[in-house]
Amino acid sequence: METILNSLALGFSVALRPDILWFAFIGCLVGTLVGMLPGIGPLAGISILLPLTFGLDATKAIVMLAGIYYGSQYGGSTTSILMRIPGEASSVMTCIDGHAMAKKGRAGAALCIAAVGSFVAGTFGIVMLTLIAPPLATFALRFGPPEYTALLVLGLIFLAYMSTTSLIRTLLMAAIGLLLGTIGIDVMTGHFRFSFGIAELGDGIGIVPVAVGLFGLGELLATPSRQVAADIMRPKLRELLPTREEWRQSTAPIARGSVLGFMIGIIPGSAHIIASFMSYAVERKVSKTPEEFGKGAVAGVAGPESANNSASTGAFVPMLALGIPTGPVTAVLIAALLIHGVPPGPTLVNDHPNVFWGFVASMYVGNLMLLLLNLPLVGLFVNLLRIPYAYLYPLIIMFCVIGVYEVNHSIVDVWIMLIMGVVGYCIKKFGFDPAPLVLGLVIAPIFEMSLRQSLIMSDGTWLIFLQRPIAAILLAICLLMLALAVMSYLSQRRDWRAKLAEAEAASEKN
């Protein structure tokens, strides 16, 4: 414990520097706005602003980008409660009871409970991150190439298993990402691969143009242009305080949401979205008055809002300690660290303590900043929702093009971004999830290197993955998840056929 306290003291000495505080504030402010604007999620916001961090050092870059991520979880609740429009996917559940509370004249109380719940859950998540990440990183130092290969396979399959689309579609997207990751110079032999004679592809396809294209440009193309309705509730500052009974009703849901969200956040997948849905289901199950849910239940706001913030913090544990992305946002953040010459993973704590502990400490400060931003400035923020999309979208596209070009001053990167924007639009229209593609692209170099090192260690024999206990256990978990997915698919087919047979029998009787 003494070591952790000393490390935190080092972190706060970094995080409380005026320049770091400024970038933490910028990240929190932009994150709040990104969370509020429908159609622009945290992933699109981080992807668009990633090129702007190239002139910064690693600590400033990761502090600002992470601020956008957890700030968006705060901001999404504002439009959900005031307008019933979820600015961010994880705020969908807040729409139900949050807007119902607003209709009853309790919009201010709902916003206050959402902000305080987010603050408590975020702080809990950061404390757990502080306690869990360093020992986990120490344990991960025992991992060799076979264990790392198995862990990456597990991460991809778990993401596919938890995905909202089908397992096959998700794995297909991940495989395409892995294939794109093989473009460029082979690190072991020095040969150019699949570059079609384009010298700029020697370093491979960049994460930045792909992420900006798929999630920035692709999201804009897939979101229909519309003018947000001007009928927006504007709660006054004096109306923000909940009653004593509302505080009492929100205490237990905030606590449950914080713990549940953090546990789900560590698991690969869209953790903050899953956490908010599960928290809502849990609160409805344990409530003595479940009939109030959907009509303005305080627990229906406090639980999901706490869960999605705690989950967004929990997602940093495997990212920082193991170097494993739990979702597309953490994949882009890993890419940001790699671009700045700081490889995330087990060696991060020891090799770059200023970055690791400065980042952790900045989250404590950032959480407090978000609370101060989201309560007094609600009236100001909601006015931004009146900006017509016809003006907003062209500006975002302009920033995408300029930002991507500025990374390497390469027109090839701009073309990649434009192509990926069209690909992202098509993927959305056909019901595919683009997130596994980015994950596959990010982990492809690490996965290929670990796999080839493993086979070199074993003279080309694949049995090495079964001979190493940790690798064998991880692969066994992968097989178990695939088997569960197949069983679920067969069960759904059987249910579908049974319903079809019942419908045919009913039609024959009639």
Can you give a write-up of this model?
There is one protein chain. The protein has 22 helices and two strands. With about 500 residues, it is mainly alpha-helical. Helix 10 runs parallel beside helix 12. It is globular and about 65 Å long. The N and C termini lie far apart (about 75 Å). About 50% of the residues are buried.
Task: Give the secondary structure arrangement, pairings included.
Elements: H1 2-15, H2 18-36, H3 42-49, H4 58-83, H5 92-103, H6 107-140, H7 145-162, H8 167-180, E1 184-185, E2 192-193, H9 207-222, H10 244-265, H11 271-286, H12 299-314, H13 316-322, H14 328-339, H15 348-351, H16 353-374, H17 378-383, H18 389-408, H19 411-429, H20 435-457, H21 464-467, H22 469-509
Antiparallel strand pairs: 1-2
Helix pairs in contact: 1-16, 2-4, 2-16, 3-4, 3-9, 3-14, 4-5, 4-6, 4-12, 4-14, 4-16, 5-6, 5-12, 6-10, 6-12, 6-13, 6-16, 7-8, 7-20, 7-22, 8-20, 9-18, 9-19, 10-11, 10-12, 11-12, 14-20, 18-19
Low-confidence runs of at least 5 consecutive residues: 225-230
Shape: globular
- Structure class: mainly alpha
Query: What would the average pLDDT be, to the nearest integer?
Result: 79
Report the sheet with the most strands, covering strand number, pairing sense and barrel closure.
Answer: 2 strands, antiparallel
> Number of domains in the coordinates?
2
List the total number of helices.
22
Radius of gyration: 23 Å
Cα-to-Cα separation, first versus last residue? 74 Å
Percentage of helical residues? Answer: over 70%
Overall strand count: 2
**Strand/helix succession:** HHHHHHHHEEHHHHHHHHHHHHHH
Strand proportion, as a percent range, falls in under 5%
